[in-house]
Write a structure and sequence with these properties.
Blueprint (H helix, E strand, L loop, with lengths): L6 E6 L20 E6 L23 H20 L1
Antiparallel strand pairs: 1-2
Length: 82
């Protein structure tokens, strides 16, 4: 487990990244992903299912991730207003 204010580096195997196709011109084929993530805070009981996929071999596109994130932000604003 990782607590708040922690920084972790996640190195992802090629098969869990963007695969043989990549996302030209941003991600070359068969690229290994390395992400440095700093956890600034956490929401109790947050449903992140709209931001992830259950099948790591079928990654979502950047546009799909951005759209899901925007929807989540809009829902949070609605929840705060009510």
């Amino acid at each position: 487990t990782v607590g708040e204010k922690a920084t972790v580096v996640v190195t992802d195997a090629e098969r869990f990244g963007y695969g043989a196709e990549g996302i030209p011109p941003f991600v070359p084929p068969n690229s290994q992903l390395e992400m440095e993530i700093e956890l600034l805070g956490a929401e109790d009981g947050a449903d992140l299912s709209s931001l992830a996929t259950s099948d790591p071999l079928k990654p979502r596109t950047p546009d799909a991730i951005a759209a899901a994130y925007k929807t989540r932000q809009q829902q949070a604003m609605i929840d705060e207003a009510t």
